[in-house]
Specification:
Layout: E1 5-8, H1 12-24, E2 28-33, E3 48-51, H2 64-73, E4 78-80, H3 90-99, E5 102-103, H4 108-115, H5 117-126, H6 142-152, E6 156-164, E7 167-172, H7 175-193, E8 198-202, E9 208-216, E10 222-234, E11 237-243, H8 252-268, E12 274-281, E13 287-293, H9 300-307, H10 311-319, E14 337-344, E15 356-357, E16 360-363, E17 369-373, E18 380-381, E19 388-396, H11 399-411, E20 413-416, H12 422-430, H13 432-436, H14 443-447, H15 449-477
Parallel strand pairs: 1-2, 1-4, 2-3, 4-5
Antiparallel strand pairs: 6-7, 6-8, 9-10, 9-12, 10-11, 11-14, 12-13, 14-19, 15-18, 16-20, 17-19
């Protein structure tokens, strides 16, 4: 495996993370730069740089022909796609397989089966994995969606078959809302994923988003690396994750059940890489399969922190047929608690993207803090990419310690020149329900911490003005 040349077809913090793993394993890390990112920060960690011509995502990170030419021209042995872009694209993984190039991810068949939500749901049912009640395949008409809603009971969820990232999803609490939303969700699905197909599922009230990390090799061995809780979300997109889940807590029977269920599903599709099986869990701790992400997840660091398993390095080893760092499930244990905050260039109140340029950047962190990021002074965040610019990760002996550390780290993180969601995180970390670990995916919508951000910012601005007045008064007495 050593000295193999691996192309990282991604950018930002995940490209940095992958490059570090490749360098540690003795492989040659090859990074790319594009016409609108001539000095991306990840290149500092890559041993070789390649120009990927173009300025839009379609011309660069999503252009399979251009990527395949780079593979030929630079004698690439393997490709790591990171997350997003082509990481779950069956056409891309199959094209690499046809050329004998290692795709650092699962086999094309697993990518296809788990990437289509209707097919993955059918496979889960056949494997004895509980699924959310709803349609068994695509729903083509609003009348059919209403019929299913009447059968399984409202509320229901209209959900894009090819969806991801919280797009193409809308809850409906009545027939009237189905009529209003059906075509709108189809249009959103077509716009976001180039495919309008929809599913109808039961909408679980006050649900918890629990996901299980999977790691498998090419020899049929499938392991779980325990669970993560990802229930603090805005627009169905995660902003805070924890491992292990505070909702499951000390209920080891539930933890074992959900983790073993994830392994069962992975084995059903001959999975052979890192991946995540996502579940929705009701207040009664009954859980249902949602989807499988056939790639490394944004939130993988918290699993690494509580288990000591390097998920990215083991993902690379699995792809090249090398042994994993452990031999049996019992070798993987939970030690402590970890919390991740996604740091995004967005307005902390509206939670909408807020592109801009970093004017200043400083960190003063306590021990037990990891910051995976791509930030530097004069770094410009554009509307072309996801607004996430970093991940602040704490590790503690227990949840209380991890929470204390991440709060201290957040106050030691200064990013000047643009709006970020740091003020929102500060409010959430002090909010009573979150502190107690009592929250669901409805947290942002019901607790509304964003409304307290405005009050807090006004109060801080007022105190700064008072301090200035007092300083001027003291100066005038001299």
């Amino acid at each position: 495996m050593k000295n193999k040349r691996v192309l990282i077809i991604n950018r930002g913090e995940i490209a940095i993370r992958v490059a570090k793993a490749l360098n540690e394993l003795g492989l040659v890390s090859v990074g790319v730069w594009t016409d609108n990112e001539t000095e991306p920060p990840h290149l500092e960690y890559c041993q070789e740089w390649v120009h990927l011509q173009g300025s839009t995502n379609q011309e660069t990170y999503l252009s399979i022909p251009k990527i395949m030419k780079i593979i030929d021209d630079y004698k690439i042995d393997g490709v790591h796609p990171g997350y997003g872009f082509l990481s779950e694209n069956r056409e891309f993984s199959q094209a690499l397989a046809d050329k004998g190039i290692i795709f650092i991810g699962p086999n094309p068949e697993a990518v296809y089966k788990m990437g289509a939500k209707d097919i993955s749901k059918q496979i889960a049912k056949a494997a004895g994995v509980p699924v959310v009640p709803g349609s068994t395949g695509e729903v083509d008409t609003v009348e059919e969606a209403i019929k299913i809603g009447n059968e399984i009971g409202y509320p229901i969820l209209l959900k894009a078959v090819a969806g991801g990232g919280g797009k193409g999803m809308r809850p409906c609490y009545s027939e009237a809302e189905v009529k209003t939303n059906f075509e709108a969700v189809r249009r959103e699905a077509q716009s976001s994923f180039n495919y309008p197909g929809l599913l109808v599922e039961k909408y679980v009230l006050n649900p918890h988003h629990i996901e299980v990390q999977i790691l498998a090799d090419k020899k049929g061995n499938v392991f779980h690396v325990f669970e993560r809780e990802c229930s603090v979300q805005r627009r169905h997109q995660k902003i805070i994750e924890e491992a292990p889940s505070p909702f499951i807590g000390s209920d080891e029977a539930v933890r074992r059940d959900i983790c073993e269920t994830a392994v069962k599903l992975a084995k059903a599709v001959n999975y052979d890489s890192a991946g995540t099986v996502e579940f929705i869990m009701g207040e009664d701790k009954k859980f249902y399969f949602l989807e499988m992400n056939t790639r490394i997840q944004v939130e993988h660091p918290i699993t690494e922190e509580i288990t000591g398993v390097d998920l990215v390095a083991n993902m690379v080893k699995a792809a090249f047929g090398a042994p994993l760092d452990f031999k049996k499930q019992e070798d993987i244990k939970i030690q402590g608690h970890s919390i991740e905050l996604r740091i995004c260039a967005e307005d902390p109140i509206s939670m909408l993207p807020a592109p801009g340029t970093v004017a200043g950047f400083e960190t003063t962190f306590p021990t037990g803090i990891r910051f995976d990021h791509c930030i530097y002074p004069k770094f410009t965040i554009t509307p072309d990419f996801d607004p996430m610019i970093g991940k602040l990760i704490s590790k503690g002996l227990n949840r209380e310690v991890a929470l204390r550390k991440v709060k201290a780290a957040l106050h030691g993180l200064v990013i000047d020149g643009l709006k970020t969601n740091i003020p929102l995180h500060k409010v959430i970390l002090e909010e009573e329900n979150f502190v107690k670990g009592h929250y669901s995916t409805n947290y942002i919508g019901t607790i509304k911490p964003q409304e307290k951000v405005a009050v807090r910012e006004e109060s801080e601005e007022f105190m700064v003005k008072i301090a200035a007045i007092e300083m001027n008064a003291l100066g005038g007495e001299k």
